[in-house]
Amino acid sequence: MLKEINNRSHIADTVINKVLSAIKNHNMINKDEKIIVALSGGADSVTLIHCLNKIKEEIGFELSACHVNHNLRGAESDSDQAFAEALCKEMNIPLKIFSIDVSKAMEKHTSVEETARTLRYRAFLEESARLSAKVATAHNSCDNTETVFLNLLRGTGLKGLCGIPPVRDYLIRPLILCTREEIEAYCDINGLRYVTDKTNFSTAYTRNKIRLEILPKLLEINPSLYGGVNRMTAALSEDSVFLENMAKKELCAAKIGDKTYDSERLASLPRPILTRAISLILKERDIEPTAIKIKGFEEIIKSGTGKINIEKNKFAIVRKGKAEIQIVIQKYRKKN
Amino acid sequence: MLKEINNRSHIADTVINKVLSAIKNHNMINKDEKIIVALSGGADSVTLIHCLNKIKEEIGFELSACHVNHNLRGAESDSDQAFAEALCKEMNIPLKIFSIDVSKAMEKHTSVEETARTLRYRAFLEESARLSAKVATAHNSCDNTETVFLNLLRGTGLKGLCGIPPVRDYLIRPLILCTREEIEAYCDINGLRYVTDKTNFSTAYTRNKIRLEILPKLLEINPSLYGGVNRMTAALSEDSVFLENMAKKELCAAKIGDKTYDSERLASLPRPILTRAISLILKERDIEPTAIKIKGFEEIIKSGTGKINIEKNKFAIVRKGKAEIQIVIQKYRKKN
Description:
The structure is a homodimer. Chain A is an alpha/beta fold and about 325 residues long.
């Protein structure tokens, strides 16, 4: 019994130490900064706010929270909001509530999950801008491993294998080194209550299958899988960022006009740089850079001339030493 | 019934087409080259020799085979050899037999599997040199996926995620795009007999677990997993080779003496290049470049001075602008 208590108190220390390591390694939080915890009310975000509250004096940052009510589960959504409100009141942490209407914002070809995610991150960005603050989300090392496997299963390149970035723009993930098990034990030993989100998004099927059926088997082979994947994603991210930056530099050097590039210069680039440069050209025109689109554009760049329909009214064109995306404006008749 | 036959004959075509694609994409075989099939007698290598025999006139290469008898399973090993001999005689393909003594060659800290592998590849290299030929091994796309997952589980970097290279030095893998299922169907429809290796190497435990328990679950989520992983490893290999080559170039530029490098120049390299350059320095001294060794060496390079014990009597030293591995020759007393 005593051993179990010791072990549990050890886990609580582990979580705090891992949070401090993540903050230090990735330079997540500096003195006098403002940090907003994205507080859903689940075990992860409750642990996150509890940890950050513990160390805020030591590092010297200002802590607040925001909660996004997705209004997708009726009374349950409201009770989650009430939980977040009560928790922040108890901890004396300022809280901002965002109430969003997911179904109203739904567009063709996007799922409830995707729309909810887009709106949620829009709220985070807004709050981050309003307070000149960083937003801390509660992603953990199990989420990171699941993301790597999800991407691996969907088919991915280097970028997809980098998992969840510990820091991206205004976002920080201080729990990224902690496992779900450690987080639940942390809640337990600190007597923290939390809510459980019963939403079952359609694409959650695959993630759940990975979480419940595949990862347990992988953990039998390697019990320190999560740590190993964390180290892998960290190293791969460095490789990926390095290659992305090289591509940006080369693309900049190949620029000969507004969104127009020297196609011969592009053709001379090594493939890892060329494919990334093409991906940047596509993004510049709001085109999702899929493998097929990149390959098609690459082929006409290499051949020195050609035109392909990239999507709808957008064409990739290589002609007279120039490579670019042209947008053809067409008049459509309205269907009645 | 007719549908099934059509489907099966379709699979036989698929295998041949995938072999032709792999050969073309990776420039595996050119006219007038000599190709030696590494023939264990299993379904994979029997399919490989059958396919290559079918297309050898078309491409215009010379086909032979070699069989390595590991002498690990007594009479069964000899019967596998006899099978390979009979098959080659029937197909009128010259065959060279290597008979190796694995237990005699076993060293400390190496497994039977590792030793067998080392000796087998030594035989391939010898035969390749003797005939000025390439050696074709029968690795398939399932082996490739398993290797990626094995490495992922063990903890890996970009290189480990590149899987089995379709071409490496004198080795080619023409079956790399075919699944095990397609290969078995190919044997079936062509009435090819093959042997089944019942050896159960100790580390085969993990591979078997991945093959039998994990991959079937992943295939439920994405039935075209093997193709997806093949595309991923192909793209990652390009990234990896590009970074490796950059590191080689930078290391060459930083060379200031025999195995001695300008430490300040190294320190200025971006991490993805520096860590690869360090790995090359270690390999130059026959040191297995583990993450810990690379990190230790990196730290003293960055700090500008220091000495660490890399392994046994080998020290990484940074001093007066120079970085190198020094080997300290010590006299040991023999234990009686």
